[in-house]
Amino acid sequence: MLKNDSNDEFLSSVLEKRKAEGLYRELNHSYQGIDFFSNDYLGLARSKHLLQKTGEVLEQYSGLINGATGSRLLSGNSKLYEDTENAIAEFHNAESALIFNSGYDANLGFFSCVPAKGDIIFYDELVHASIRDGIRLSHAESFSFLHNNVYALKHKISTVLSTRKDVKRIFISMETIYSMDGDIAPIQEFVDLCKLNNYYLVGDEAHASGVYGEKGEGMISALGLEEYFFARLYTFGKALGVHGAAICGTKVLREYMINFCRPFIYSTALPPHSIAAIKASYEMLPGLNQERENLKKISDLFGELMNEGKYVFSPIKTIIIPGNNEVRRVAEILRQKGFDVRPILSPTVAKGSERLRICVHAFNTEDEVRDLCSEIKNIHRN
Question: Which residues contact 129 (CB under 8 A, 6 or more apart)?
């Protein structure tokens, strides 16, 4: 006989357990203090110029209405959509681009529909949840490998292939810069491995888009390695300051996803003003050299003040403070001092590696960074 809980009691009991374990999440719209938490690395999300330029883009296209009114395959497609995708593909030196409603949708869609039965996906153990969820929906087998460790990946592949004789394709999934640690992948090593063995390399550039490269085109393009990636993901909700994402690859890949990618097929398309904002942001990126220089300068200063050791440029900084309650306590102290810094709790990160995730921006000042670092050091001393 089925258990007859009263109303939503079965949900409440799980939530109470989560509260008792210090893992409870809740929405918050109160943002006070200096921004050291958002992914708005270049300040475009707060840019009045971007708002104005978005309006100018909309004026260039006639017949647009407020909503897409349906999926791209039904009523949501437009010349604005296609022009924007063409501009994105050209910007990232790709044959084609396909826009998704979010980076989550893009990863979920790609990994659930492209790797097929008989394929194997090897993924970095710290890839984003959207990649993991897409892999779970895939008909391919999957195995994780030690973070940023190409030697461990080679060993894992060798071990798996020793027991399988009928593998069709091998996909390798990695990010160029990781969202929780801010560390950078050994991209060339991944490329060398995949070139040698004809593996399909998939790179997520979510936190590199807009930040790296001469025009903000990302790490892969900055290194001139585009041709070695089967697919590349670029998201717009971070340095680009807007919303959505695109997968760049061949025209055949684009056509395949249009035909088989369920999150694309069955989602209402983004509204015209969102597409116009994406197009406007891409048009602005090449002219943001000063912002990228400011971001690097601020990032360098933080690394110097916090004695990061061997320094690699990244807008994401991590201060490990084990324990959900303790890292919450430190974040609250910093907020009281005027710094909006957010704690990252387990299980989002592994237990014992809870941390402050500090994001620096082009609009942060040197004095703000010095004051923040000073407060963090004072808390540690006390």
Answer: 104
